[in-house]
Amino acid sequence: MQAGANSTHVFFAALLALAALCAPASPARAHPHVWIDMRTELRFDDKGRVTAVQIAWTFDEFYSAFALEGAPRNGSGYDPAYLAELAGINLENLAEWDYLAEISSGGNNIALGVAEDGKSTWDEASGRLSLSFTVPLKEPLAPAAAAPLQLRVYDPSYYISIEYEKTEPVRMTGTVPQGCTLASETPNLENVWLGLPETAFTDENSRIGASFATIVTVTCPSAS
To answer: Between the CA of residue 37 and those of 29, 72, 122, 224, what are the distances in Å?
Structure first.
């Protein structure tokens, strides 16, 4: 890769490190500096269990321009080999934070594996960089009425804002059991800000970003 690639990798790693370590955050710092539009896909196996979640992010124009500064171009886009390597290194950096994904069931967090199928793409018309990847669950999970699956994708420090796209933001694929339902709940941002305690800005373990995260819930009928 050319010299410009190194600064890109360092910046993304530093951004995530800052996002994880900036707590305790002052009110002035506890707001987004990078914006991501997201789609997710919950994948079921032939036994009706969720085995993985695919995550697709599209970064805002300003971050996209900065991240690709100095990158080799190929026609109207960027060199595919460069984008492929960029995706790989970004996923390495994201692994420490479980790719900013949290899956839980019955009040317990579900262990996640190493992300696969990482891919970076560039859209010339919008001037935006995208990153997609698949995060497997270490053990398949069957969402049940008594213990539905819940998914949140967020930056704990709220340095990065991650919001779902308006069109087909989340879906279920594979052998989805009959009767499974998919619901999402997005917090009202104004109400969240008004309801945050002072410890959200002073406690280094407050995970302020969780308060702003959309919760996706998958519930399936219990097996008889």
So the answer is: 21, 25, 14, 39
Q: Which residue in this structure is represented by tokens 């935006």?
A: 128
* Distance in angstroms (rounded) separating the CA atoms of residues 104 and 141: 10
- CA–CA distance, 36 with 48 (Å, rounded to integer): 30
**Model confidence pLDDT, tens digit, residues 160-186:** 999 999 999 999 999 999 999 999 998
Handedness of CA 24, 27, 28, 31 (dihedral sign): positive
Q: What are phi and psi of 206, to 5 degrees?
A: -70, -25
CB atoms within 10 A of CB 202: 12
Look up the pTM and report it. Answer: 0.84
List CB contacts of 170: < 8 A, sequence separation 6 or more: 39, 40, 41, 42, 151, 164, 182, 184, 216
Rounded Cα gap, residues 30 and 40, in angstroms: 25
